[in-house]
Amino acid sequence: MTKADLIEEVSRLAELTRKDSEIIVETIFDSVVRSLRSGDKIEIRGFGSFRTRQRKPRVGRNPKTGARVEVPAKKIPYFKPSKELKDVINHGKPAEAATSAPAAEGPST
């Protein structure tokens, strides 16, 4: 799915104009990027979480010449899917254990 496909899907499901859907999708992506740049973690329940990881500096090799290349330290974005997302992908339905578990009772006094 491309960003254009996502905009079209939002437009169709929310019955919005394509322009309004584009603004919504762009705003969400911009918010995620801004949060990651500032070092914040983004957690979307039932979907997953985004965060950054720090990579250490290292020595790499130019594949064409074999010359050594210093690769500087950098942050990389990382996505960790939620258990619910993994279950939907693998089994076609969300985890029922969380929804069918009895509610915990508080201590009796």
What is this structure's SSE topology?
Blueprint: H1 3-14, H2 18-37, E1 42-44, E2 48-55, E3 58-61, E4 68-71, E5 74-81, H3 83-91, H4 97-100
Antiparallel strand pairs: 1-2, 2-5, 3-4
Helix pairs in contact: 1-2
Write up what this structure looks like.
The protein has 109 residues and is an alpha+beta fold. The protein folds into 2 domains: 1-39; 41-97, Irregular (HU Protein, Chain A). Helices cover 41% and strands 25% of the residues. The chain has 4 helices and 5 strands; from the N terminus they run H-H-E-E-E-E-E-H-H. The strands form 2 sheets. It has a 3-stranded antiparallel beta sheet. A two-stranded antiparallel ribbon has the order 3-4. The longest helix is centred in the first third of the chain and has 20 residues, at 18-37. The chain is extended. The relative contact order is 0.10.
